Amino acid sequence: MEKIKLELYTDYLICNSGFATATGLSAMLEGDISHDQMTRFLSSKAFTSKDLWGQVKATVRQIEQENRCLIFDDTIQEKAWADENEIMCWLLITAKGVRSRVSTC
User: Fold this and answer.
1) How far is CA 54 from CA 11, 15, 47, 71, 84, in A?
2) CA-CA distance, 50 to 42, in Å (whole number)?
3) Can you tell me the distance from the alpha carbon of 104 to that of 64, in angstroms, rounded to the nearest whole number?
4) pLDDT digits (tens, 9 = 90+) for 11-66
5) Counting beta carbons within 10 angstroms of the beta carbon of residue 38, is it exposed (0 to 12), middle (13 to 18) or buried (19 or more)?
6) Which residues contact 21 (CB under 8 A, 6 or more apart)?
7) Nearest residue to 100 via CA among 85, 74, 73, 81
8) Partners of 100 in beta bridges
9) pTM of the model
């Protein structure tokens, strides 16, 4: 069941073009997995790049070719002049040692 939750959550993040939440996933699944179940699952461990590789390895190997590459971008874009709202908040950017207003989605 844990692998199914991870696959569902991964697919949800890929297909969601807006603000991704455990509540939104539960609604999309018509309550088959509750918000609380997903939140407990995501809080149960610190997921690492090893977990991600375990999820994508088979797919990567299927499409792997000499002239292709896979790029992961975890960039956080500063939004210094934006107002705070449900998707904008203050985060500490540790590389700079300052607080910056960034989009969290």
Assistant:
1) 14, 20, 11, 16, 36
2) 15
3) 31
4) 888 777 777 888 889 999 999 999 899 889 888 988 888 887 888 888 888 888 88
5) buried
6) 35
7) 81
8) 91
9) 0.52
Residues ≥6 apart with Cβ < 8 Å to 71: none
Structure tokens at 89: 């908040």
Identify which of 27, 30, 23, 29 has the alpha carbon closest to the alpha carbon of residue 4.
Answer: 29
DSSP letter string over the chain? Answer: -HHHHHHHHHHHHHH--S---HHHHHHHTTTSS-HHHHHHHHHSS---HHHHHHHHHHHHHHH--TT----------B-TTSPP-SSEEEEEETTTTEEEEEE--
For tokens 């609380």, the residue is: 36
